[in-house]
Amino acid sequence: MTETKTKAKASSSAEKDFVARLADVGEEALHRLAELPGGQRALNAVNDLRARVDELAKKVRGLDALEERVASLEKEVAALKRKASSRSSGPS
Predict the structure, then answer these.
(1) pLDDT band at 9 (very low <50, low <70, confident <90, very high)
(2) 3-class DSSP state of 1
(3) Using CA atoms, how far apart are residues 92 and 87, in angstroms rounded to an integer?
(4) How many CB atoms lie within 10 A of CB 15?
(5) How far apart are CA 61 and CA 53, in angstroms?
(6) How far apart are CA 45 and CA 17, in angstroms?
(7) Once rounded to an integer, what is the mean pLDDT over residues 53-68?
(8) In contact, 80 and 88? CB cutoff 8 Å
(9) Which one, of 49, 85, 54, lies nearest residue 41 by Cα?
(10) Which residues contact 32 (CB under 8 A, 6 or more apart)?
(11) First to last CA, the chain
(12) Buried/exposed code over 22-56 (b: 16+ C-beta within 10 A; e: otherwise)
């Protein structure tokens, strides 16, 4: 049982080491990119793109609620049309 815990801890620390190294490499790459001519503009463009994608994602999530409301309103309109047509076609 302790052997399993030891392996799990080793695996966990290996994953943390890998993630930490990956984060360090990513940060280093961003710093190098920023130092290149036009690199800062590229980073700003990527950040702006990320912000726009986030805004778009929020709007798209709101579409589901709107679709449900439209479907509900369509059912109500159909029911009102049925009532109106049954009144007009009935005996006067």
Answers:
(1) low
(2) coil
(3) 9
(4) 10
(5) 12
(6) 31
(7) 92
(8) no
(9) 49
(10) 39
(11) 87
(12) eeeeeeeeeeeeeeeeeeeeeeeeeeeeeeeeeee
pLDDT class of 67 with cuts at 50, 70, 90:
very high
* Residue-level length of the chain: 92
DSSP character for 75? H
| pLDDT value for 11 | 65
For residue 38, the number of C-alpha atoms closer than 13 Å in the C-beta half-sphere is 0
Q: What distance in Å separates the CA atoms of residue 83 and residue 75, rounded to the nearest whole number?
A: 12
pLDDT tens-digit map of 33-50 = 778 888 888 888 988 999
CB 63 within 8 A of CB 56: no
The Cα 63–Cα 21 span in angstroms is 40
Residue type, 85: S
